[in-house]
Design goal:
about 25% helix, eight-stranded mixed beta sheet, alpha/beta, about 230 residues, about 30% strand
Length: about 230
C-alpha cells in the first residue's frame, strides 16, 4: 500500500494575524482548505492511505476529511502534547504498514511527481530529501549536495543566501529509521536528527522543479492564494 504522512499538528503562530479560527493547514485557498489541495495531489499520485499527524484544533481536520477521502484511507495520529517534527514522524511511522513512506509538511504545497521519488527509493532504499532550487535560500537555509547526489550538510538561514537548493519539506523514509532517532518524544527531525545523520549515513537528495510554496507567513499565504487558485474550488 502506498502511504503518506502529513505533518499537520503545528500551531501556525506566524499566520494567526490572517487566519485565526482554523489550524494552519486548513487555511482557505479560494473555496478549499490548503490541506485539501495537498491531499488531492496525493490522490492523483496514487497514494492509498494518508496518516495525518494532528494536534492543534485537530477536530477541524478530522471533521473535514473523515476516514476516507477521494479514494484514500485517512487515519490520524493525535499529539496529546507537541512532539516536534521528529516526534510526530516517529509516532506516525509506528502506524505505517509499508516498509517506506512519503512524509510531507502540512503547510507546504509541493507539486511533486512521486513516481520519481518512488523510483529512487526502489533503486537505493535509503532516506531521501526532496530538494528544490530557489532564487534565495536565506529564508529556508541551504541544502548542500555532493557530487554523488548525497546530502552533504545544511547551512543555517542566517549564513546562507543567493540561489541554491533547499529542503522542500518532503522525505521518503524507511519505517525502520525510527531506530536511529534520539531518545525521548519531542525533537526536531531537521535539527535533532538529519543534521547529524548526513555525516554518518547516505541521505539522498532528489532534485525537483515542481511547484513549491509554503504558507508559513502572511506574505506567503497571500502569494499562495494567487499561485494555487487554479487548484482550488
Amino acid at each position: 500500500m502506498k502511504e503518506a504522512v502529513i505533518l499537520a499538528g503545528g500551531f501556525g503562530t506566524r499566520l494567526r494575524a490572517v487566519v485565526s479560527d482554523v489550524p494552519k493547514p486548513m487555511a482557505p485557498i479560494g473555496d478549499e482548505p490548503f490541506l485539501a489541495l495537498l491531499m488531492a495531489h496525493l490522490a492523483r499520485n496514487g497514494f492509498e492511505r494518508v496518516l495525518l499527524s494532528v494536534g492543534y484544533l485537530a477536530d477541524v481536520i478530522v471533521a473535514h476529511f473523515g476516514h476516507a477521502w477521494r479514494g484514500m484511507v485517512v487515519d490520524y495520529v493525535r499529539e496529546a502534547a507537541p512532539l516536534g517534527t521528529g516526534g510526530a514522524i516517529r509516532a506516525a511511522l509506528a502506524r505505517c504498514t509499508a516498509d517506506h513512506v512519503h512524509v510531507f509538511n502540512g503547510d507546504t504545497y509541493l507539486g511533486l511527481d512521486c513516481r520519481e521519488t518512488e523510483a529512487l527509493w526502489e533503486a537505493r532504499r535509503t532516506p531521501i530529501i526532496v530538494a528544490r532550487e530557489v532564487p534565495d535560500t536565506a529564508r529556508y537555509g541551504r541544502l548542500e549536495v555532493g557530487a554523488d547526489g548525497n546530502v552533504a550538510g545544511f547551512l543555517e538561514k542566517a549564513v546562507s543566501g543567493g540561489p541554491g537548493w533547499i529542503n522542500a519539506g518532503c522525505y521518503v523514509l524507511p519505517v525502520s529509521i525510527t531506530a536511529e532517532f534520539p531518545p525521548g518524544d519531542p525533537f526536531s527531525f531537521e535539527t535533532g536528527y538529519l543534521r547529524e545523520a548526513v555525516a554518518r549515513r547516505p541521505v539522498l537528495a532528489c532534485p525537483t522543479d515542481a511547484e513549491f510554496i509554503d504558507i508559513g507567513t502572511p506574505e506567503d499565504y497571500l502569494r499562495a492564494q494567487a499561485l494555487l487558485a487554479s487548484l482550488a474550488g
